[in-house]
Amino acid sequence: MTTQTVGIIGAGAIGKAMAKQLAAAGIDVILSNSRGPASLAGTVAELGKQVRAGTVQQAADADIVFFSVNWNRSEALLRSLNLQGRILIDATNPVILPGFELAELGGRNSSQVLRDWATGARVVKAFNTLLADVLASPPETNGGRRVVFVSGDDAGAKAEVLQLIERLKFASIDLGSLEVGGYLQQFPGGPLPAVNLVKLG
Hints:
- This protein is α/β, with parallel strands linked by helices.
- It has one domain (5-200): NAD(P)-binding Rossmann-like Domain (Rossmann fold, 3-Layer(aba) Sandwich).
- The chain is 33% helix and 24% strand.
- The protein contains 8 helices and 12 strands.
- The strands form 2 sheets. Strands 1, 2, 3, 4, 5, 8, 9, 10, 11 and 12 form a 10-stranded mixed beta sheet that branches. The protein has a two-stranded antiparallel sheet with strand order 6-7.
- The longest helix is centred in the C-terminal third of the chain and has 13 residues, at 155-167.
């Protein structure tokens, strides 16, 4: 399947950086936030014709859903949405603000917890380890491509996200399951957040 539209839930720095990369690759984007489409008029105009503002549920109805929302608000929002069968890219980090403390996760990693909140979604962890300004930068750099780490338990969903990463001109490293890769990617606690690797060749 070739992704036609990506819905982005969360229009902060990471969401906007992702919208920029998707639009540059010719992929239609529905950008959403908690304040409604009208609040995104300026952002959408800046990002170009591939990007339009929508409601959170309209973004959740897209072919692939990119989720980048503060951890404090994630559970209530995900439980309110119909995500049955949707591929959900988890770009969150389990940080309690203010203070940057690790949220209480009950002995699991954040993606395993988030999967329970997003009933029926096919969760793939990706794009959470790059800082927003790095994510917004050209993926092809210094003779190679910037790396996006990926983990997930649904092989089909992961394959589609890997295909999307390739289409965006990033490189990917598959870390395996959410149980394994989710810990490696998690901030705080994991070793990979803010690591900016470039795959040569």
